[in-house]
Amino acid sequence: MATYMVFTRESTRDPSELQTYSQTVGKTLSGHPVKVLAAYGRQKVVEGPEVEGVVILEFPSIDAAKAWYDSPAYREVREHRFRGAEYRAVIVEGV
Prior knowledge:
Blueprint: E1 3-12, H1 15-28, E2 35-39, E3 53-59, H2 62-69, H3 72-84, E4 85-93
Antiparallel strand pairs: 1-3, 1-4, 2-3
Helix pairs in contact: 1-3
């Protein structure tokens, strides 16, 4: 069943760390069954606090999403995201 990984950037701490993350995260998707549905496009918050950006990735299953998220390549790169900004990340199964 299609599964979505949603990243919401709530606030930036270190723009240079985010730049490093942005330049390296794409290569971590190689070899994984993922489709990028949204990546920091125009947005409008209709409930809750404002956010800086949203990314939505589609995977064929929760296991596939976790395989990418927990992969050695992404674990290394995501450290830049952790240092660069406050994010919320959610894996949600589709209907």
